[in-house]
Design goal:
single chain; globular; 191 residues; mainly alpha
Length: 191
Amino acid sequence: MATGLALLATSGVALAHPGHPGHDAVSSFAAGFLHPLTGADHLCAMIVVGLWSSLTSKRVWAAPLAFVAMLAAGGLLGMMHWFALPGVEPMIAVSLLVLGLMLATRAQLPGWAGAAVVGTFAVFHGFAHGAELPTEASATHYMAGFLVATGMLHCLGIAAGVALRHRTVWVPRVLGAGVLAYGVTLLAAAA
């Protein structure tokens, strides 16, 4: 028992050492994971994609998977710094406006159209994530973090949609209207 306590007492010191293998991977993953969770714009968009998809589509995973795939593509573009994608912040605001409208109206789109809409917006969200890659972070681990967090937020939205599907019509409509209004506010601030 004394040996176990000694190991516990010293493990924090060992892990705090900046040269410790894996430390960069963990902190890079954490930075990426937290990025979508700490920005209300990203948080709303990702939950709404899952919620809308679960309420309106037989292929519940089509739009969320398209979002994650295009988020990765946009993230790579943002990390490369080859060019500045114009209108990133206004397009993120527009994404909230459109996604909020889609949720509020329970817009029924063909699977390919829903995937195209959310995928287009995901490129801009991804570019924003990628462009904010911390200097010392591992790009691979950072991207893995924001992709995992995004998938979890989509799953949260899907679960909420499944729970609400046959119970109430007005809650998703009110949530959609709120996200739409938030998008309008962000768009006005960006102008």
